[in-house]
Write a structure and sequence with these properties.
The complex is a heterodimer of chains A (379) and B (506). Chain A is α+β, with helices and mostly antiparallel strands and 379 residues long. Chain A is 29% helix and 26% strand. In chain B, 30% of the residues lie in helices and 16% in strands. Classes of the chains: A alpha+beta (379), B alpha/beta (506).
Chain lengths: 379, 506
């Protein structure tokens, strides 16, 4: 059991973490104090072109090794402490952040042309796979993950999240069961622009991990949830799937439901997605909220063994494990509803769905059914 | 000097014998008729007919026991009570005795009969408790749909979705009937397998004996074999099948060929194999147009061209370097690799080869799947594995280790009455399975065999879904290659590392 909360402003209006804090603190009983975390988008506007690498390390010499490593491959513009207020949490790793840009000479030198994202991921994975006492837990641009072992309220205060302003917020309250409660195992999990929080257990983890490893991803956070962030990167950034298609890969409809699709072309496409990405499919009980730089999507398993509720008011959309938490963020939502089993629900920034957006996705802001049942249950 | 009349002949004594309960026996003589090995004869004693056992050829097929209308027969061991010896145990002594009777290679049937570990038995499944709920297959959908064939690493690599789908084989469950040729088994068994394959949306493999005309209606579910003897390979044959299989090796006899004696080449077999009546059917050890991986590639593409680009499968025995060989086969263009393990069966194989050559399928499968993933070519071909699959648990363990589908051969025979007497090569199968004798083969009724096989498949399918459900998995795709579902017991580090599983309790 874990708790999830998320909010997004489609017009990119920024706010500090106060509302998301209320939503996740309300769900305090969904965790046990062994992990909590937040992700916020839009918090580093002055360094928006640089990758913000958040690093945890056991000791200062590891920090120096990380710095040395990063300087080999990146222009390190800033290295600084992540501001902490450690009144309640005394036993914690060192938390640093580096604002970096890949060395352009290294990008052009390689045999195949490699873009900045690909290069950065490769180095993040390499570092996480080879350093025993340090790891990067957040690597996107103009965003950051803040997480650790503690209650949601304590972790919020520890990272001083009143002082950050973002237009997308994610929060998580952890009740670890199968894996240890440690700083790296807290949610959200992040890779570049993709951050995820997860409630549940991924029974397909064994094959998801092997599948990702064959694409060069390193799973070292000792917990099943991290695969979701890497899968999103693989499917969307590397294989060019839309967010919605990536959702049907991760939480695919039953074969029988696909077989019932009348349009031959979309049926063929769905079948092919399920055949090709069989090993990326998630199984087991899960409710997942994923954020990326221009939107947010929720996923649940086909039998909906974990809760997910959604609300909307004006330019805002809200997600939470419990309906009551939605009202902590917005007292008078115009819509409150519960996605059906297997149904994903996505919200995109206005700039992303309009003509001026960087990317366009099909079916923006539409309720999308991945379950055998037809239609949504808005109301 | 020939003293054969007076010198005893060690090795010709059978290690089983029927025991007759004379209180029940009424001397009807059915047992003597049913025994195709002439173990039983009827004698008249005191005006009454009674059965007598020769103690020379009983192999514990239990045919007499089942057919006795008075339940008067039990089969018992007739062992030599040898003085125990740490090296010269009973098997070793009896093998030398038997070999010394003829001077020829000792032939046998079925798969290896040794105490090499069955790794399946040392792997245990995980199950849901508390944090991830089990799924009840009686209440929730539980899907086992499996696609075989060449796939792609990314959806963007597919030019034409329709032709991609047409190139794949869709199975309703990851289970197929292993290749057993017409000749090694009779048409009745093949017909039963073919009918069940069609009914259940599975596949059956023809083996190397060609495609009998009565099987044509089921050829859409058939993987037709092209083996070293090229039996029955005609232009029609190359159009009829759903897929084609190039046979390089077989688990029961890696590295050697096959020999169907002329006495067994009766009319149907002669016609189907396209060889003269009564002539020996020799399958050379290698395919004589394949001496290298490049040659294999030529044949793979020749078969694709000839068949209109149907999937081509390459069958190999699991041997020491199997991972590298499989990688080469995938890179040569095969759409499926069929791995036949150490315990894989045969209609006739030298016992010395069967019991001493090759490696267990669990280790071979684990090594091949891992190697193909490391080389990032796992998607290019499906893995079908066989070799001593005894239960739905074995099937699911193989799937968790990384198999796309699992083939069963011996289990089919057992479902149809086989009692594992291992005398398939004799041509006298008392249950009418591995014989083409016109009288004996009538003992295998096609409808009955079809029902038995259907029951087996349906029973296993239910059990497979139970195993998925208790692991909280509703789609076989998340089970496939998911080695965290398995943990080992009583295995050492090297075995665990090859299998890619943790030790129980870790």
């Amino acid at each position: 059991m874990c708790g999830i909360a998320g909010l997004i402003s489609r017009k990119k209006v920024k706010e500090n973490g106060n509302r998301i804090r209320k939503a996740i603190v309300l769900q305090n009983d969904r965790g046990n104090g062994l992990g909590a975390g937040y992700a916020a988008y839009g918090i580093y506007p002055e360094y928006a072109e640089l990758y913000a690498l958040h690093v945890m390390a056991d000791n200062y010499s590891s920090i120096l090794e990380v710095k040395e490593y990063l300087q080999r491959y990146f222009e390190v513009h800033i290295m600084e402490d992540i501001p902490l207020w450690n009144k309640k949490i005394v036993n914690h790793p060192l938390c640093k952040r580096f604002f970096v840009k890949p060395q352009s000479s290294l990008l052009t030198e390689s045999v195949e042309e490699i873009n900045e994202d690909g290069f950065t991921i490769e180095k993040v994975m390499e570092l996480n796979g080879s350093f025993d006492n340090a790891f990067i837990f957040s690597s996107g641009k103009n965003m950051g993950v803040f997480k650790g072992v503690g209650t949601p309220a304590d972790i919020y205060d520890f990272f001083c999240l009143d002082d950050y302003e973002g237009y997308i917020w994610l929060a998580h309250n952890r009740f670890p069961t199968n894996t240890p409660g440690w700083w790296g195992g807290a949610h959200p999990f992040n890779l570049l622009r993709y951050s995820i929080v997860h409630n549940g257990e991924i029974s397909s983890y064994g094959i998801n991990k092997r599948y990702l490893e064959s694409f060069g991803y390193v799973c070292r956070m000792q917990t099943d949830s991290e695969v979701v962030a890497y899968l999103l990167d693989l499917l969307i950034r590397r294989h060019g799937l839309s967010v919605h298609e990536a959702a049907t890969v991760l939480a695919p409809p039953y074969w029988t439901s696909i077989g019932r699709l009348e349009d031959e072309e979309s049926r063929d496409r769905r079948l092919a997605l399920k055949v090709v990405y069989e090993s990326a499919m998630l199984n087991g009980p899960f409710a997942i909220l994923a954020a990326f730089d221009n939107g947010m999507i929720s996923l649940t398993d086909n039998t909906k063994l974990r809760p997910m509720t959604v609300a909307a008011e004006g330019e805002y959309s809200y997600y939470a494990s419990e309906v009551s938490a939605l009202y902590e963020m917005e007292e008078n939502p115009t819509h409150v509803y519960t996605p059906r089993a297997g149904q994903s629900h996505a919200v995109f920034l206005d700039e992303a769905s309009g003509n001026g957006g960087k990317k366009s996705y099909p079916n923006e802001n539409e309720n999308f059914s991945a379950s055998p049942a037809k239609g949504g249950s808005k109301g | 000097m020939n003293n054969s009349g007076s010198i005893p002949s060690p090795g010709l004594r059978s290690i089983f014998r029927p025991r007759f309960n004379m209180d029940l026996c009424d001397g009807c003589g059915i047992c003597a008729q049913e025994c195709s090995f002439n173990e039983i004869r009827m004698e008249t004693r005191g005006g009454k007919k009674i059965p007598m056992a020769n103690s020379s050829s009983c192999g514990a097929c239990h045919r007499c026991e089942y057919t006795c209308p008075r339940n008067a027969i039990t089969i018992e061991e007739n062992n030599l009570h040898l003085r125990s010896h740490g090296v010269w145990d009973r098997n070793a002594v009896q093998r030398v005795h038997l070999q010394s009777t003829s001077g020829s290679v000792v032939l046998t049937g079925l798969g290896a009969d040794t105490d090499i570990p069955v790794y399946f038995d040392r792997l245990l499944f995980n199950a849901c408790q508390v944090t991830n709920p089990s799924i009840d297959p009686q209440r929730e959908p539980m899907e086992t749909v499996t696609y075989l064939g060449q796939k792609y690493q990314a959806i963007g690599e597919i030019d034409d979705l329709r032709s991609f789908h047409n190139s794949l084989i869709r199975l309703s469950l990851p289970l197929v009937f292993a290749p057993m040729s017409y000749g090694s088994v009779n048409l009745n068994l093949q017909l039963a397998m073919a009918r069940v394959a069609k009914k259940k949306n599975m596949l059956w493999y023809s083996g190397e004996g060609g495609l009998h005309k009565e099987l044509l209606p089921y050829s859409d579910y058939a993987v037709l074999q092209v083996a070293s003897g090229r039996f029955g390979v005609s232009p029609e044959y190359l159009q009829a099948g759903r897929a084609y299989q190039i046979k390089i090796g077989q688990g029961a006899k890696p590295g050697i060929g096959g020999h169907l004696p002329g006495e067994k080449v009766l009319e149907g077999i002669s016609e189907t194999r396209m060889i003269p009546l009564g002539s020996d059917a020799i399958s050379p050890a290698p395919q004589h147009d394949i001496y290298s991986i490049e040659d294999l590639r030529l044949l793979i593409y020749a078969l694709k061209e000839a068949s209109g680009y149907k999937p081509v499968c390459v069958k190999i025995a699991a041997v020491h370097n199997v991972a590298a060989i499989a990688s080469g086969i995938v890179r040569a263009g095969a759409d499926m690799v069929y791995l036949d393990g150490y315990r894989g069966g045969s209609g006739a194989t030298p016992a010395i080869v069967r019991d001493n050559v090759g490696i267990p399928i669990e280790l071979a499968l684990a090594a091949v799947d891992q190697r193909l993933r490391e080389e990032r070519i796992r998607h290019q071909a499906s893995l079908v594995v066989a070799g001593g699959i005894r239960s739905s648990a074995d099937v699911m363990k193989a799937i968790a280790l990384g198999a796309d589908a699992v083939a069963i051969g011996t289990a089919c025979l057992i479902a149809c009455g086989c009692h594992v007497c291992q005398r398939c090569s004799s041509g006298k199968c008392p249950w009418g399975i591995t014989t083409n004798d016109p009288v004996l083969s009538k003992r295998l009724d096609v409808d009955w065999a079809e029902e038995r096989l259907t029951n087996l498949v349906e029973g296993w399918h239910h059990e497979m879904q139970e195993i998925m459900g208790l692991n909280g998995i509703y789609d076989i795709g998340s089970f496939r290659g998911n080695r965290l579902i398995l943990e080992g017991v009583d295995l050492h580090d090297r075995e665990l590392s090859v299998l890619g599983v943790k030790h129980a309790g870790e």
